[in-house]
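Field log, afternoon session.

UNIT: design team B
ACTIVITY: writing a sequence onto a fixed backbone
BACKBONE:
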């Protein structure tokens, strides 16, 4: 019988390893899997590559990932903190201790979708003529210059949802979805924390991630 539910955060994050890549959902605070991110902070894994929309919410939630220099690289679309003083991760980027791969938000979303669909790369006019296009292949399509962006995949994806069933089907609430469905498809192991777990199957039109794309589901309160 298929049952993807786990009881503890340790079971949910089983298999993490040094040097692994982890996608983390979230747009602002919406859809950020805070409890699992804090559980990640409590592990000893290091040399991590984080793939996420904004780094600063991870620094707020799990600061020792940066103070202990456990993140080697971040792939994101937002890498600035709102205050006048730079955050810990910003100083590490400036000193070269943390590698940053910055991607325009639309390109970031499409890179996730491409990775999940098995598309190795695509061309887009976004970022042409800027520093973000330096060193990347360009081609002309219908008179418009486009830059090549590669698809993104990861070893793990950590997501926040609203409701799930034991088969691993997941439903989101509003903006909570953000990058979650694309990340679920693009990761080898997808872990979802949800507010509600139910025995009966979610209706097909009420499921935003089919269970085939999830591996572990855990019921946890929303800590936002």
């Amino acid at each position: 019988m298929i049952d993807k539910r786990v009881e503890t955060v340790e079971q949910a994050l089983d298999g993490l390893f040094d040097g692994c890549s982890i996608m983390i959902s979230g747009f602002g605070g919406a859809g950020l899997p805070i409890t699992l991110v804090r559980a990640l902070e409590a592990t000893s894994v290091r040399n991590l590559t984080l793939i996420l929309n904004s780094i600063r919410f991870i620094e707020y939630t799990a600061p020792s990932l940066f103070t202990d220099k456990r993140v080697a690289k971040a792939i994101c679309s937002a890498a600035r903190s709102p205050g006048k003083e730079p955050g810990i991760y910003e100083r590490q980027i400036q000193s070269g201790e943390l590698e940053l791969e910055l991607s325009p938000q639309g390109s970031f979303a499409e890179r996730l979708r491409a990775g999940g669909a098995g598309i190795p790369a695509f061309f887009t006019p976004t970022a042409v003529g800027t520093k973000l296009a330096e060193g990347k292949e360009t081609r002309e399509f219908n008179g418009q210059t486009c830059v090549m962006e590669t698809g993104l995949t990861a070893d793990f994806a950590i997501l926040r949802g609203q409701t799930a069933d034991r088969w691993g089907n997941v439903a989101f609430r509003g903006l909570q979805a953000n990058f979650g469905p694309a990340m679920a498809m693009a990761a080898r192991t997808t872990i979802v924390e949800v507010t509600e777990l139910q025995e009966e199957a979610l209706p097909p039109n009420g499921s935003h991630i089919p269970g085939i794309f999830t591996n572990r589901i855990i019921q946890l309160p929303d800590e936002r």
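LOG NOTE: The helical segments are 9-12, 34-42, 56-61, 64-67, 88-95, 105-117, 180-186.
NEXT ACTIVITY: expression trials, pending approval
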